[in-house]
Amino acid sequence: MTTPDLRLAIGDLPSDPAADTTHLHQLADNIRREERRVLGFPGNLDFSLENLAPLLGVFFNNLGDPYSPDAANLNAKPYEVAVLEYFAAVAGAQPREVYGYVASSSSEALLHGLATARRMLPAAYVYASDQAHYSIRRACELLGMELVTVASCPNGTMNPEDLRVQALRRRRAGGAIVVATCGTTMLGAVDDITALRAAASAAGEVYVHVDAAGGGLVAAHTHPQPNWSFAHGADSLNVSGHKILGMPVPAGISLVRHELLSETAGGEYIAATDRTLACSRSGLASLLLWARLRSLGRTGMAALVGRCQEVAVYAVDRLERAGADPGLFPGSLTVTLTRPPTWVVGKWHLACAGERAHLVTVGHVTYAAVDEFAADVAAARCELLA
């Protein structure tokens, strides 16, 4: 547990605002100095939205559904709808085919998708691979759904044959809810949802949710595209708004096929329909997403993904030379390697699992940073062999 910093305690009397501002600016400066060495986590730190600082003086509350008016009318819903239309197209759907909203994170959006799946198949088991994000287990616990862990293939994708066997054992349960992953946490693998739907049909009716938090925007701009989206049979999916895109606040996008949602009315108090989980949602997050996407455009987003993929391939080459046994799922930004010593892990903010570590070549990761990192890995290996 983190020890509380007594300097940050909120006291009985007002503080010195100038001193607090200085303290917060120092925090921001400290983080900025570390940014170029943050290789192990998928948040793109290369963004600049300081020109939107005046938005911090306005309360934007997207209350209820993005598509519904509300009594307060202090919202940024038209901008949220524009963001949702962009993500619907990216995920292989027409805007009218899906319902969506901007959530606080991809974990919330995943929870929304699984709640929809439970309503459609209330007795079904949930199937996810041993490479899936831990938030799936937490969502199942919250919703009272039983999770079945499916084995993965050596490349990190869910094993369709093991899914078929597991589903067949539980065929009396009333269907199957499959949570596929587009961009697994440690390996960056992308499950083939077409193959998984076919395999799970051994249990009867199948609902497929895709956790595309880490890899949705990447997969959408990879050629040929993997089978990950609504175009390939997804019923719902979630995508991160702050990972490869880059944002100063976390955000997630929930998208569900329209016909799967009930027409749930909100309370009379808000005068809005509401099929979200949160009711009150950050309009600021939608505005920042809109500004970020507008600044890139579709061609800019494709160029960003392409450059990040090139850096990943470059990292594999440099780490091979360093003797680090690198691996890369085709089209992914996640490069795995033999876990280096603690000082390398700490310096470069690596994510580790067992004997492996990884880096994720999102926008702020440069060729120069990869060179310096590979040099540290090579030096550490020499120390171990000496």
Automatic annotation (TrEMBL):
This is Aminotransferase class V-fold PLP-dependent enzyme. GO terms for biological process: carboxylic acid metabolic process. Signal peptide: none annotated. The keyword Zinc does not apply. GO terms for molecular function: aromatic-L-amino-acid decarboxylase activity; pyridoxal phosphate binding; transaminase activity. The lineage of its organism: Bacteria, Bacillati, Actinomycetota, Actinomycetes, Kitasatosporales. It comes from Streptomyces xinghaiensis. Belongs to the group II decarboxylase family. The keyword Mitochondrion does not apply. It comes from the Bacteria. Its cofactor is pyridoxal 5'-phosphate. InterPro entries: Group_II_Decarboxylase, PyrdxlP-dep_de-COase, PyrdxlP-dep_Trfase, PyrdxlP-dep_Trfase_major. Keywords: Aminotransferase, Decarboxylase, Lyase, Pyridoxal phosphate, Transferase. The modification N6-(pyridoxal phosphate)lysine is found at K243.
